[in-house]
Amino acid sequence: MKIYIDFDDVICETGIAFTVMAKELFGVDVPYNEVQFFNLQKTFGLNDEQYTELMRVGHLPENLLAYEEAPGASEIINKWVDEGHEVSVITGRPFSAYEPSRQWLDNHGLERIPVFCVDKYGRETFNEGCTYSMTLQQLYSMTFDFAVEDSPAAFEHVLHFENCRVAVYDRPWNRLAEFPNERFQRCAGWQDIDRMLHTLK
Ligand SMILES: [Mg+2]
Questions:
Q1: Does the predicted model carry a pTM greater than 0.85?
Q2: How far is the CA of 171 from the centre of ligand 1 (A)?
Q3: How far away, in angstroms, is 162 Cα from ligand 1 center?
Q4: Which of 90, 123, 148, 190 would be 72's cystine partner, CB 3.0–4.6 Å?
Q5: How far apart (Å, rounded) are the C-alpha atoms in residues 137 and 141?
Q6: For residues 34 and 2, what is the distance between their CA atoms, to the nearest angstrom?
Q7: For residue 52, how far is its CA from the centre of ligand 1 (angstroms)?
Q8: Residues 159-197 pLDDT 10s
Q9: How far apart are CA 159 and CA 166, in angstroms?
Q10: Which fold has domain 2-12+69-199?
Q11: Domain residue spans in the chain?
């Protein structure tokens, strides 16, 4: 199977790290479990300048490299590759975050997995000439049989893959989201995602 895997809050614990950074930078104390919105500016009640600063700090290489792995992620992803699945990481991180993102995957035993930066959230334009950056049109022309996402804002993207089943990694900010169709299924974590993949025909 061809498998799409999101990076932040699917392979690593970005949301938790951002709650810590928001507290350190601006004294905003929103516990992880109360992060209701995927939009962090809204979640933390930040002005534009504060939000820009939070995103800048959150994407510093030393911070990107320090994000904790989601429990079981690399073990299960490697198992899928061993089983013959074709796995790609498709992240909405800015293109400037490519190198540390690649490094993070290598550090966590995921050297075999390619990573592509796609502007999923309308934050920047295509970076021409990079082998690792992709436009949304390029993404939509690809086929995937299985996808793992956490963000309701990215559901519209995975809907482009015909008959693709989508594991939605259970996170506080997607608990109130309505799933677009029955191909989307909530999963509690990587063990659950692995079970879902293996129940597909
Ligand atoms: Mg994500």
A1: yes
A2: 10
A3: 21
A4: 190
A5: 6
A6: 34
A7: 18
A8: 999 999 999 999 999 999 999 999 999 999 999 999 999
A9: 9
A10: Rossmann fold (3.40.50)
A11: 2-12+69-199, 14-66
Among candidate residues 4, 26, 8, the one with its CA nearest the CA of residue 17? 8
Picking from 104, 69, 105, the residue whose alpha carbon sits closest to that of residue 87 is: 105
Distance 200 CA to ligand 1 centre (A): 23
| pLDDT tens-digit series, residues 87-123 | 999 999 988 899 999 999 999 999 999 999 998 877 6
Please tell me the distance between residue 54's alpha carbon and the centre of ligand 1 in angstroms: 17
- The model's pLDDT over 12-62, given as tens digits with 9 standing for 90+, comes to 999 999 999 999 999 999 999 999 888 889 999 999 999 999 999 999 999
24 C-alpha to ligand 1 centroid (Å)? 22
Tell how far the Cα of 9 is from the centroid of ligand 1, in angstroms: 5
Question: Token digits for 29?
Answer: 């104390």
